[in-house]
Amino acid sequence: MLFMVAAMAAEMERDLIRERTLDGLRAAQAQGRRGGRPAAVDDDVLAIARARRERGESVTVIARHLSIGRSTLYRALAPEPGSAPFAAAAPARLEGLGR
Predict the structure, then answer these.
(1) Whole-angstrom Cα distance, residue 26 to residue 79?
(2) Is residue 73 classed exposed, middle or buried when 0-12, 13-18 and 19+ CB atoms within 10 A define those classes?
(3) Within 13 Å and on the Cβ side, how many CA atoms surround 55?
(4) What's the N-to-C CA distance of the chain in angstroms?
């Protein structure tokens, strides 16, 4: 029974810590602050990378010049999920199936 009481107290304390943490995050967001690591690729860096990629430079060379990782650059240069050429045609195919 003693262990049950100790476990209940620990669970209650954990809930209080979680609530205080979430309150602090909401207060920081209301003041315009965001947590986490800053983005490595901003609009200026992305414009430079796209221009160099259009000139035919490799992603490895561009990433090394901009001091960012190749995978980060690949992610930044990837097209938006909804802008793929086949994304607009997919709903049209489903309409003919009676769905």
Answers:
(1) 32
(2) buried
(3) 9
(4) 58
Three-class DSSP labels, the chain = CHHHHHHHHHHHHHHHHHHHHHHHHHHHHHCCCCCCCCCCCCHHHHHHHHHHHHCCCCHHHHHHHHCCCHHHHHHHHCCCHHHCCCCCHHHHHHHCCCC
Contact 53, 77 (CB under 8 A): yes
With beta carbons less than 8 A apart as the criterion, state whether 70 and 59 touch: yes
Does the reported pTM lie above 0.70?
A: no
Residue located via tokens 């947590």: 35
Q: How far apart are the C-alpha atoms of 65 and 48, rounded to whole Å? A: 10
Q: Could you read off the pLDDT of 68-94 as tens digits, one per residue?
A: 999 999 999 988 776 655 545 445 444
